[in-house]
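Second opinion, please. Please look over this fold, written as tokens:

===
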Amino acid sequence: MKYFTIAELCRSTTADNKCIDNTPAPEIREKLQTLIEELLDPIREAWGKPIRVNSGYRCPALNQAVRGAPTSQHQKGEAADLNAGDPAKNRELFDKIVEMQKTGRIAFDQLIDEAHYSWVHISYRKTGNRGQVLHL
């Protein structure tokens, strides 16, 4: 883990404000480490500039507090919402991730442009990655 940490992916202002314990179980920590090693660090390396994690792991109580989808991969430690600074930079980051996937440098489950590039959602599963590219 070169650029990101598990602690960074578990940090949440909402959890702090609502006194929600967002500590991941060991199996979730393992998935977060895989997410960092397989996606987040390679993306950051290729991007060459800082990327902020808006949201990573969410325990069920935190996911409910932020009105996340009941089946959100954030709850499994398999997803992160990324921000490169503004919508224009997020679009560039999104396009960079698509290019990395097309050239076989990474594989992802879902890559989602959220709210006109307000942030970029990316997820990874150890098996069965769908390679979905979505705009919501």
Q: What stands out?
A: The longest helix spans residues 26-47. The helical segments are 6-10, 13-17, 26-47, 60-65, 87-102.
